[in-house]
Amino acid sequence: MNDDLFLKIAQASADSGEAHYGSGPATENLISSYEASLGAPFPESYKTFLRQYGMLMFNGLSFYGISK
């Protein structure tokens, strides 16, 4: 399922014809430190997004995450 989602994101980004920006993959340590500082665990689907992109912006849309 995650692979399909990432393919859809990549296709939407390519179809937009605009540059996309991301912070790069977030490490497990970085994800854990954000969870600890917020006092709440992130859903696994969100952690998968963070591991892949960190955060992502394209076509006027922002997908918030962790930026370095």
Written description of the protein model:
The chain has 68 residues and is mainly alpha-helical. It has 3 helices and 3 strands. A 3-stranded antiparallel beta sheet has the order 1-2-3, with no helix packed on it. The longest helix is centred in the N-terminal third of the chain and has 15 residues, at 2-16. It is elongated, with a radius of gyration of 13 Å. 12% of the residues are buried. The model has no long low-confidence stretch (mean pLDDT 85).
How are the SSEs ordered, and which strands pair?
Layout (H helix, E strand, L loop, with lengths): L1 H15 L4 E2 L5 H11 L5 H9 L3 E3 L2 E3 L5
Antiparallel strand pairs: 1-2, 2-3
The low-pLDDT segments are none
Task: Sum up the overall morphology in one term.
Answer: elongated
Our estimate of the beta-strand percent is 5-15%
The span between the termini is 27 Å
From the alpha carbons, calculate the radius of gyration and give it in angstroms. Answer: 13 Å
